[in-house]
């Protein structure tokens, strides 16, 4: 696996591989099994796997954790190589944003609920950097995780709206043994917060079980149940619990026959964790 920092080097290395199927896995690094599952999926379906590691300042709001976001490029290089990546692109901020970006990509509508309302401007930063990565790498396939379900829905729509010639693949959420969704931000949690954070998965799973047994008549009851479960944990502060149609993220009027996304964002101290499940 080669590591490059320049856009020109990525283009140069891929020039002789254009006849091969190229897969791109965009990340912010500090890799864990969730990221590695995307690399392995890309490796199984593509001949060349490009991994990007870039903590994108454009998607962080003022007061968010940009400066303390965990970073360990040497370890990322090691584990990405073992998982099968062929090229690791780790640009500097100056390389990706030589000028303050006057041009940005904005997906409307889908970016309004859930994390879009808690993190204003966040998805504009995500779609702008992913559009740039798509132009730099020009992959055949691009890989995302279901843990960031709204992000996947937003990028899928951008790909369709802007006719990017890429097939998008969304991979299942990889969890710790006790159900907590893997996330680079889990490293921020104190042992007590870490143990209480399992409530995200437990409340979603318990809710799903009851839903399958026919317990709920409306989405408000689902939200109340999950909120009550989360509030049993003294360190948890709810940002949102929402039930929406999936993948259009529209409000739910009729539960029967709908595909739902049940999504939560919860603070433990300063750490904001998200999780979701799709209920069919
Ligand atoms: N547990 C997971 N299972 C599957 N995919 C994941 C998981 N965690 C992250 N991903 C995916 O990896 C890609 C890169 O995500 P990112 O680098 O932000 O990691 P993260 O662990 O989600 O970090 P953060 O703490 O910022 O949420 C995204 O497509 C994301 O959905
Ligand atoms: C897609 C992404 C790499 C864009 O910076 C980021 O939002 C992430 O890691 O999910
Ligand atoms: N995993 C999404 C990137 C972010 O939280 O900024």
UniProtKB/TrEMBL annotation:
Please report the organism this UniProt entry assigns to the protein: Kroppenstedtia pulmonis
**GO terms classed as biological process:** pantothenate biosynthetic process
Q: Which UniProt keywords apply?
A: ATP-binding, Cytoplasm, Ligase, Nucleotide-binding, Pantothenate biosynthesis
Q: What is its EC number?
A: 6.3.2.1
HAMAP family xrefs: PanC (MF_00158)
NCBIfam families per record: cyt_tran_rel (TIGR00125), panC (TIGR00018)
Q: Do you know which InterPro entries this protein is assigned to?
A: Cyt_trans-like, Pantoate_ligase, Pantoate_ligase_C, Rossmann-like_a/b/a_fold
Further comment = The reaction proceeds by a bi uni uni bi ping pong mechanism.
CC terms in the record's Gene Ontology section: cytosol
Its protein name is Pantothenate synthetase
User: Is Cytoplasm given among the entry's keywords?
Assistant: yes
Oligomeric and partner information: Homodimer.
Q: Where is the active site?
A: 35
Entry binding sites for ATP = 28-35, 145-148, 174, 182-185
Q: Main localisation, per the record?
A: cytoplasm
Instruction: Identify the domain of life.
Output: Bacteria
Residues noted as binding (R)-pantoate in the record, renumbered to the chain: 59, 151
Q: What does this protein do?
A: Catalyzes the condensation of pantoate with beta-alanine in an ATP-dependent reaction via a pantoyl-adenylate intermediate.
The cellular location(s) given in this protein's UniProt record come to:
Cytoplasm
Positions that bind beta-alanine:
59
Q: Which family does it belong to?
A: Belongs to the pantothenate synthetase family.
According to UniProt, this protein's pathway is: Cofactor biosynthesis; (R)-pantothenate biosynthesis; (R)-pantothenate from (R)-pantoate and beta-alanine: step 1/1
Q: Does the keyword Zinc apply?
A: no
